[in-house]
Amino acid sequence: SLPKTCPLSLPGSTEIMAKAASSKAQAASKAKAAKKAVVKGSHGKAAKKIRTSTTFHRPSTLRLSRAPKYPRRSAPKAQRMDAYAVVKAPLTTESAMKMIEDNNTLVFICDVKARKPQIKAAVKRLYEIDAVKINTLVRPTGDKKAYVRLSADVDALDIASKVGIL
Questions:
Q1: Taking the model in full, what pTM does it have?
Q2: Which of 39, 49, 100, 141 is 20 to 30 Å from the Cα of 160, by its Cα?
Q3: Which of 101, 95, 109, 108 is nearest to 158 (CA)?
């Protein structure tokens, strides 16, 4: 028998020894698994994806919004189509004068790229006129002619004289 001072003779010492041996075995198996993973590498063979269609569609990936470090243009572009560029001049032909008298309509030569709302805003800004309707046409010379119809309460003759058409 063992002496009483020996650690193995304590009650439950065999259980402690068994636990220590099992933890050692676990550590050894963990180390073997780690070694195997290092040798094999993390990029093992993946299963090949089965393609179901004959055409390839590029996968949609993350599209980040732009966050520029500095502006690409030092100053913003100046507006090209201001009121003076839209309306070039009033038309003073005989037919234009007839339109003023009969139809309460002023006739202007405008920029070819100008749209009806731009013409309406330009006429309002330049001559303080509220247009009811605007008809446009492009002349064979390449200019755009705008017929600016005025409301019934405003007289086109008064405005034409104020503008300097008459």
A1: 0.56
A2: 141
A3: 101
